[in-house]
Structures are given as structure tokens and as C-alpha cells.
Amino acid sequence: MAANLAIAVAKFVAFLFTTSSSMLAESIHSVADSGNQALLLLGGKRAQRARTKEHPFGYGRERYFYAFVVAVVLFTVGAVFSIYEGIHKIELRGDVESPQWAFGVLIFAIIAEIFSFRTAIKESNLVRGNQSWVSFIRHSKSPELPVVLLEDLGALLGLIFALFGVTMAVITGDGLWDGIGTLMIGILLAVIAIVLAIETKSLLLGEGASPDVETQIRSALEGAPEVSRVIHMRTLHLGPEELLVAAKIAVDHDDTAADVARGIDEAEQRIRAAVPIARVIYLEPDLDRAPVK
């Protein structure tokens, strides 16, 4: 966040010297990124609050809410402004003044963003496993890393678009190219914002555990001696690191109440051992009736 703020200041200075719309769009882009990272930090902090009577399952999903707000901010502040500024610049076709300022700041920013993007990739690889990048962004239950990944990718591509627009405007002497570069930045931000909105909306509405995790939970349940089988099961992420598990389990009709209670306790322990994020577990016993053929 601090790096993005510093880059934003540098871009604004370059804009004042060059009057380049691409530099202005990139300045707003960096300001939006800094604000988004502040929102993610705020969401993470608020999600740690203790549960209350009004919110008995806690505030873990606040992280999803703030990630969704990030998508809205990126679209309204970054994309809409850049698209408007690009169209305006195309109509005016003003010259780029003192382009060396733009080149210097853009090259510095590209180098800084490469290091930032590299860090985001390294952090994501720690939890991505064997998933493809598309699958990781689509199915990650923790919203921060996919958001930062897409933001960094967008920032890097946006800088390349800005460099392209300014370079072509200087070579041709036509400010049209500066406007085209700005328009490309706006469209890029709109695409990223829409992808983020779709993915975080799904998390905000409530997503269940991944198929692999559900298989682990089912195996843990059916491994308990008193559990004959799992009749049905539902899971729900209360937050990235907190999973609710509700299941109806079949028990033998000869089991006593003490046997059933002991079996439920053991099943809960087995679930938590297999899936540590399963922190809220509700198990309902039922008689084991053979399914009707």
C-alpha cells in the first residue's frame, strides 16, 4: 500500500509536467489500488471480532464484503474515470509535454510493480498447490491473494499500456495515441473489476467446501465406529479459515444414547483432525434405514 501511494505521487508529478491522460489514468489507478489494499486490511481486522448474539457465527465473512467493495471501487474510480479520460483525450488530441518525465516514472513503476507481482505470486504459490492460476482465482476461499494478484497484474499491464500510449504519441506527434492508451487502461480495469465482483459475490453469498475437503469430512465421519454412513451433508464457509459442517448421520438401531453421544464426539474429533478449519460442526443422528430400491 505504501509503495502504491509513492508510485501514485510520482505519477501525479509526471502528469503535471506532461499533461498526459495515460499518466493521469495511471495515477488514479495507483490511488485506487492503495485504497483497495486499505479496505482489505480493514476487512481482515473487522473479521477478527468476537461473535455476538446478533452475529452468532462471527464476522469472518466481512473479508468477503470488503473484497467485493474493492471490485466496486476499482470499477467506479479506476475504470470509469480512465475510460472517460481516454475518450476526452481522443477528442482533444493534445500533445504530450516533457515526455521524459512520463518515461522515467513509467519505467520506475514497471520495475516496482514487477517486484510486487513477483511477491504476490510467491505468496500465492504457498497455498495454490496444483491448481492452475485460473482455478486458484476462481476457487480460493481467501479473497485477499486473488484480489492482490489481479490488481498487480492490472497495474503492470496498465503501465505497459500507458508507456505504449505515450511512446506512440511522442513518435507520431499525435495525442490520439495517448487517449488510446488511457482507454485501454480503463477497459482493462473494467474487466478485472467484473471478474473480482463475480468471484467475491459468490463468496459473499456463501460457498461450501471444495469437493476434496468434503470427501475428507465424509471419510472422517464414516470412519467413526458408531456411524454407519452419512445420509446427507452441507458445508458453508463462515470465513476463509472457518467452515461450518452440518450432517445427518446414520447410526445402528441397537446403539444406546450413550453410544450415539460417544460416536458423535468421536466423529467431531475426526473431522477436526482431518480438516482443522471445520470449527462449527452440527451432527444429527438418525436410524440407519436401507434406501428404497
Automatic annotation (TrEMBL):
UniProt GO BP? zinc ion transport
Region forming the signal peptide: 1-25
Q: Which UniProt keywords apply?
A: Membrane, Signal, Transmembrane, Transmembrane helix, Transport
For this protein, the record's Gene3D superfamilies field holds: Cation efflux protein transmembrane domain, Cation efflux protein, cytoplasmic domain
* InterPro entries cross-referenced by the UniProt entry: Cation_efflux (IPR002524), Cation_efflux_CTD (IPR027470), Cation_efflux_CTD_sf (IPR036837), Cation_efflux_TM (IPR058533), Cation_efflux_TMD_sf (IPR027469), SLC30A9 (IPR040177)
Cation efflux protein transmembrane domain segment(s):
2-205
Residue ranges constituting the Cation efflux protein cytoplasmic domain according to the UniProt record: 211-281
Q: Where in the cell is it found?
A: Membrane
List the molecular function annotations (GO) for this entry.
Answer: monoatomic cation transmembrane transporter activity
Q: Name one GO cellular component term.
A: membrane
For this protein, the parts annotated as crossing the membrane are 64-87, 99-121, 153-173, 180-198
Its record classes its membrane topology as: Multi-pass membrane protein
Where on the tree of life does the source sit, at the highest rank? Bacteria
Q: Which NCBIfam families match?
A: CDF (TIGR01297)
Which protein are we looking at?
Cation diffusion facilitator family transporter
The scientific name of the source species is Nonomuraea dietziae
